[in-house]
UniProtKB/TrEMBL annotation:
Known cofactor(s): FAD
Secretion signal, residue range per the UniProt entry: 1-24
Name this polypeptide is given: Uncharacterized protein
Superkingdom of the source species: Eukaryota
Provenance organism: Sinanodonta woodiana
Amino acid sequence: MRSSWKTRMSFLFLSLSVVLYTQAVKNKSKNSDVGGCFCKLNEQVDDCACQIESLDQLNNKQIHPPLQSLLAKDYFRYFKVNLKKQCPFWPDDSRCALKDCHVSACSEGQVPDGIKAEIHEKNKYSKEAQEEKSQTCQEERELSALDTTISKASQEAFKNWTDYDDSQENFCEIDDDTSADSQYVDLLLNPERYTGYKGASTHRIWRSIYDENCFKPEKGIAYGKQRSLAGLCLEKRAFYRLISGLHTSINIHLCAQYLLPSKTMLGSKTWGPNLEEFKSRFDPKLTNGHGPQRLKNLYFAYLVELRALAKAAPYLEQEDFFTGNDEEDRDVKQGIKNLLSFIKSFPHHFDESKLFQGNPKEAHILKEEFKNHFRNISRIMDCVGCDKCKLWGKLQVQGMGTALKILFSGDGMGPDSTVTNQHKKSFQLRRTEIVSLFNAFGRLSKSIQTIELFREQS
C-alpha cells in the first residue's frame, strides 16, 4: 500500500515537472517570437544617418511626455473635419455599424470661441481689422462713384483660383472649413483604438493605397506580399516607407487600445494592450518575415515629420495658438517653444535636399507624381467605412501631407533651411494644418513609446 502511494506521488511529481517544463518552453518560444519583432530596431534608419536607438532615447525621454501634454490642450484637441464626404473611387457600401466606429461631434457651445474661425479673426486681429475698416471707409468716400459689386460667377472664379493656388503647394486635400458638413471633433473624447472594423472593406482601402498609389519596381506585387525596394530611386523608396510607417503606427495604436474581455464574469470589458494581436501583425513568423521591417519604417516616418517640425520652428514659434483662454494660450506657446528646442537640437535630422535632384525637368515630373500619389491617398481616406477610423486616418494623412509641404517650402532644402512667417504669401499654415501636423507626429511618437510597452511584455 505504501509502495503504491509512493508510486502515485512519483508519477504526479513527474507529470507536474513535465507540465512546468512544457510551459517554460512555450513561454520561451513566445518571448523569442515577440523578440523577433524587434530584430531590426537596433539598426540605422533606412536612407538616413540616424540610429533607431537614438530616436528611442529622444522620443521616449524628451519629446513624448511634453508633446502628449500639449495635445491635451484646447488648441490641439479640437479638429474640424468632414466625415460625410463621399468616396470618389467606389460606392460607399460598407459602413461600419459597430458602436465603437461612431464619432461624437462637438456641439456649438463645446468649442472654445477663440477656435471658431470667424471669432478668432475678430479677436486676434481686432486692431488690424479696425484699421482696415477705417481705410476701407476712406476709399469708399473717394471712390463712391465706382460699382464695386462682384458677380457670383466672378466670386466662384476667384475661389477656384485660390483653390488652385493652394493645391500647388499642398500634398493632400484639406476639408473645406466653411462646409456645412464640417464639424469640430474633440480628439480626446474620440481616441484612436480598435473598433472591430475589418475585413474586405479595410483590405480594399490598403490595397488601393499600396497597389495603386505606392511606387513599385515591378508589376503584379499584391497587397500584403513582400515588396522589394531594390531598383527604386530614393524618392520612391521614401514614399513607400512613409506610407508603411503610417500603416504601422495605426496598427500599433489598434493593438495598444484593444477591446479586451472581462477578467471576471460580472466585470466589464476594458481597453488595453493585446500582445497576441501585436504578434499577428509584426512577428516575422506570422508575417512572412515582413513585420520587423514594418516596425523599422515607423522610424523613417517619425524622422521625416521630426525634420518638418524643426524646419517650421521659426514659423511655429511666432504663432499665437489662440483659443481665447489667455493663460492656457501662453502655456501652449511656451510649451511649443520648449518642445521645438529639443527637436532642433537633435543632430541627425532627415535631409530633404537629397530628394528630387538630378535633371531639373525629370525631378519636377517626379515631384508632381509624388504629390499626386499622396493626394490620392488623402482622397482614399474618405472611403473608410468606420467614422472613427476615417477621422484618425484623415488627420494623420493630412499631418504627413503638411510635413511634406513644409519640407519642400521655405528658403531651400537641407539641414539648415527653414520656413518663416515673415512672408505669408509665400508660406502659410492654416490652423487645421498645424493641428493635424502636431497630432500626426503625436501618433508616431505614441507608437514608438508603445513599442517599449510590448517589449516589456515579451
